[in-house]
Structure formats: structure tokens, C-alpha cells
Amino acid sequence: MRLIPFALLILCGAVQAAPEVVSLDQAGVLYEQHCQSCHGVNRLGGAGPALLPESLSRIKPDEARAVIHNGRPASQMAAFGDRLSSAQIDGLVSYLYQPAATAPTWSDDDIRASHRILADVAALPSTPQHGADPLNLFVVVEAGNHHVRVLDGDRFEELANFPSHFALHGGPKFSPDGRFVYFASRDGWISVYDLHNLTMIAEVRAGLNTRNLAVSNDGRWVLVGNYLPGNLVLLDARDLSLVKHIPAVAADGTQSRVSAVYTAPPRDSFVVALKDVKEAWELSYAGEPDFQPRRIEAADFLDDFSFTPDYRYLLATSRKALGGQVIDLDTGKAVTDIPLPGMPHLGSGIYWKRGGDWVFATPNVSKGLISVLDLQSWKLIKEIPTEGPGFFMRSHLNSPYAWTDVFFGPNNDAVHLIDKQTLEVAHTLRPMPGKNAAHVEFTNDGRYALLSVWDTDGALIVYDAKTLEEVKRIPMNKPSGKYNVGNKIEFAEGTSH
Length: 497
Ligand code: DHE
Hints:
This protein is mainly beta. The protein is 12% helix and 38% strand. Helix 3 (61-70) packs across helix 4. The relative contact order is 0.09. The structure holds heme D (DHE). Residues 57-58, 143, 169-171, 211-212, 260, 304, 345-347, 391-392, 439, 480-481, 496 line the site of heme D.
């Protein structure tokens, strides 16, 4: 018998066991072979989402690894576990979290080239064609399968169900008459949909990584706030054609990302939070606007803000400072700090009258408590303990309760109803025990509250807002936000703006 030398055995073993290491260059080649056809040259996105570090910031590398290996159910993302080795998948994951070799750009020409008109609005009827109350429709984002459903808010029947761009985020915004709804996806796709005719009108990619959009109160303009590139993109609200882009550059020349943009109806202006410079901007859209920003010095970088009911003040939050500040839009001065200890999910705060005075309340994403502030003195009135940190809060003028979810932790199936006068938790509901309950929106008259069970086998549940009885359950795949047209266009108390 021929003996294999011991050293050779060791060597063979070492060769078999040694982890194959895939360099970033090799991973780049793998990307071109396996991923580019869907995710685009330079990872900018295509049929599949963009895969830039900015786009992946909310996904942990382990999750990205699992998606490449197993694919993503209910999407076109195939499983590559049988085609790529673990080392190759690891290499690809490292590659995706690296900045692109060529810094990504998105020019006016790119925006124009992405613009698609999908229906001729002038040829469509200008009155609702669905027979339901146009001011009591609900637009529901079904995040699990990237779809949007339109529901009749009187009968809770579905009027339409259509695919959206990948990962819509933030509240859709409406034209002042409620006919058109505007969506923004995290990858920068903006779409406009006609709720009278239940048809998509146009879409455009306004950026590579977008925060949110706002619609002017005269219905003429859409302003999009982007992280990548750091700018504002102004679109014609009729068909989303590009008007111009406005670089987010501070007075001292520092480039910034845009945190968020909202419309301030009584001021006829857009108000903008900047993430990397200590400025808030106001851009008037009254008359024939030039969209030159009025720069307001802020006491900190801004992640987001809410308005007071009269739109004079901003309650602005900054994740870096773990707190907030009040900015007076009339004087352009920061007035005071506000205590928000656990960082609100931005855009989540609501206000209501307690006794004769306005109060403002918001959940905190890193602490199980609701902060309630007095809007006259800016003082903290109460921190209401909850079963865990929450994301969203909602009420209605006709409801005695503010509904708030417990989004994180073992009790994320709970929803608290806070008595708006005593500021105590009056009821705790568990709509589907063990499944994450989140995000509520009321019908226009406040009689019913619609709640999401944020699960693959989830549901949209309709409650009688007074008796708290369940009225209807519509199965859905991770329904996230839902938006009542009437509440939105009235900028109603208790809903998001
Ligand atoms: Fe949101 C609204 C920011 C993570 C679902 N979110 C908003 C808004 C901002 C914001 C600024 C208000 C914009 C608007 O409505 O015009 N969100 C952020 C973040 O900074 C954060 C913490 C991290 C991030 O990477 O963006 C974040 N948000 C999330 C999520 O993980 C959620 C739960 C799932 C998702 O879709 O990504 C989520 N955000 C939402 C929803 C709204 C929202 C459903 C609209 C709420 C509304 O009722 O109007």
C-alpha cells in the first residue's frame, strides 16, 4: 500500500478547510454577473431596489446575506444559495455595504429620462368614478408585497389594489381637493395616482435615496427631500415633470442631506429640515415663487419636526442631541429646548386640546413612554409609561383617546388607548396576540379606527372607535400606514401632516 505523506494529508485538509476569501474586486464581478441586470449598473437600482450603502442602512448584513441565499418571498428576488458559495455571498454582502467605486450621481437629465406619463389626465373624467365618498377613502400601503389598496371608508370594501415602487416610506400626500395622491419610495420614485379614476398618472425618479415629499396647498408643486443626492427636487404636481433641483447647501457652503419637507398651508410655504447643517429652510410658494430658501438658524441639526396647530412654531427633533428645540418661524429664532428623551419616530407627534390648552404628544422609539408637552409653556406635562417603545400615534377630534402602538419588544402586539384628558392609559388592546400591532387612522367622522397588524399573515382591523368592538378584519401582508383622504386634506387634528 502506498502511504500518503503526513505533510501532504495536512496540506489537503488545510486546502479543503481553508475559507475561500472573495475580494471586493471579485465580488464586483459577481455583482455584474448575478445582480446587475435587476439592481442596475453602479447599484443604482432597476427592476430591483438600489443596493447602495445608503439604501441598505436599515438592513443588517446578516439579513442581506439571508436574502441573497434564500431569496425574498413574494418578490422577484431569487435564491442564490445553490449558485454561490457562502464565501461568495459573504463577499457580495461586504461589497454592497461599501461605497460605490464611482460616486453615485443623479442629474436633471437622469430625472427627466426616468419620467413616465402613464395616463392622460385631460382625457379622464374629473369627478369620482367609484361611487364611494371621495373624502372618506383610505389609501393603505401594504409593505409586505409593495402594493397599495384603496378602500371605501364607509363600507371598508376594496376599490383598487395596485403595485407600488419598492419600499414606499412616509405618508402619501394629497392634492388639496383629494383627487390625486403622491407616493415616495425610499429609492426616490415619486408616483401620482388619480383617486377619482383609480389609475396611475405618472412617475419619476427624483433621487437615489429619498426621505419624503410634500405637496403645496395650492396643488401646484411637489417638493421632494433627498439624502442622495443631498437636495430638494421641485416637480410640477400635474404630471411630475421636473421644474428644478435645489442643492441642500448651507450659507457657509456645507453640503447637507435633507431630513424632511412639509407644507405649511397657512404660510403658503414648504418648510425643510436639514440633517447635516444647523439650518431650517422655508420656501414660499405664494404667487409666482422663486423657491429661494429663507434660512433659519437652528440650535442643532434637524431630523424632523412637527408644527404647532397655528403653524407658527416647529417642534424639531435631533437624534444627535436626544432632545428637541422649538423654532419660531415668524422671528426665525430658536426659542427653547424640549425634552424628548427617547427619540420620536419622526412625523409621529399629534396635538389635541386638553381642557382649554393645546398639548402635543409623541412616542419615543428608544423608550417605552409617551412624552406629552404643553404647547403654551413648552413644558413636559407627563411621560406616560407604555409596554414598550412605539412608532405611531393617532387620534381624532371626536375621539376621547389617542391610540399608540408598542412597536418594539416582546409586547409589540399591544396598542394603548390614552385618555386625552387624564393622560392615563384607559385601554390596552391586543388585536392579534403575538403579532405586531401598529399605526392607526380614523375615518373622516372619527367613528371607526383602522389598525395594522404588521405581519406577513397580518390584517387591517376596523374598530368601532367608541365601543372598541372589532367591525371587520381584512387579511393583508404587512399593512403599514393608512391614510384617510378627508383627514389628510383637512390637516385634521390627531393625524399626521
Ligand atoms: Fe418612518 C413617516 C423617518 C423608519 C414607517 N418616517 C416618516 C416621516 C419621517 C420618517 C421623516 C415623516 C415623513 C412624511 O410622512 O412625509 N422613519 C424615519 C426615520 O428616520 C426612520 C427611524 C429610519 C429610516 O431609515 O428612515 C424611519 N419608518 C421607519 C420604519 O422602519 C417604518 C416603521 C417602516 C418603513 O416603512 O420603513 C417606518 N414612517 C413610516 C410610516 C410613516 C413614516 C408608515 C408615515 C406615518 C404617517 O402616519 O404619516
